[in-house]
Design a protein that fits this description.
Helix content: over 70%
Largest sheet: none
Strand content: under 5%
Low-confidence stretches: none
Number of helices: 4
Shape: elongated
Distance between the termini: 71 Å
Radius of gyration: 27 Å
C-alpha cells in the first residue's frame, strides 16, 4: 500500500525520523551530568579571569613604556595578540 501511495510512504519516513530524533533528545537528557557541566563552566570562568588579568598587565606594561615584543615574551603571548589587546583599550 505504501508503495502505491507516495504521500503515505513519505509520512512513514517522517514519523521514523521524528522517533529517531526523540530518542536522541531523550538520550542527551539522561546523559547530562550537572557536576561535569559546572566544572566546565568553572574552567571557562577561570580562563576568562586569567585573560582579563593578562590584558590588564599588558596595558600596564605598555603604559610604563615596555615594548610589545617584551610584553608578549613576559606574558607568553604573540605580539599580534598584545597589539589586539592594546587596540581594544583605545
Amino acid at each position: 500500500m505504501m508503495e502505491q501511495c507516495r504521500i503515505l510512504g513519505e509520512y512513514a519516513q517522517y514519523v521514523e525520523k521524528v522517533r529517531e530524533n526523540a530518542e536522541i533528545i531523550a538520550m542527551s537528557i539522561f546523559e547530562y551530568d550537572k557536576e561535569e557541566e559546572e566544572q566546565k563552566l568553572q574552567a571557562i570562568y577561570e580562563k576568562q579571569g586569567e585573560l582579563r588579568k593578562a590584558k590588564s598587565i599588558a596595558i600596564s606594561l605598555a603604559q610604563e613604556g615596555e615594548s610589545i615584543e617584551r610584553i608578549a615574551r613576559i606574558l607568553g603571548e604573540t605580539e599580534k595578540t598584545i597589539k589586539e589587546w592594546l587596540a581594544e583599550t583605545h
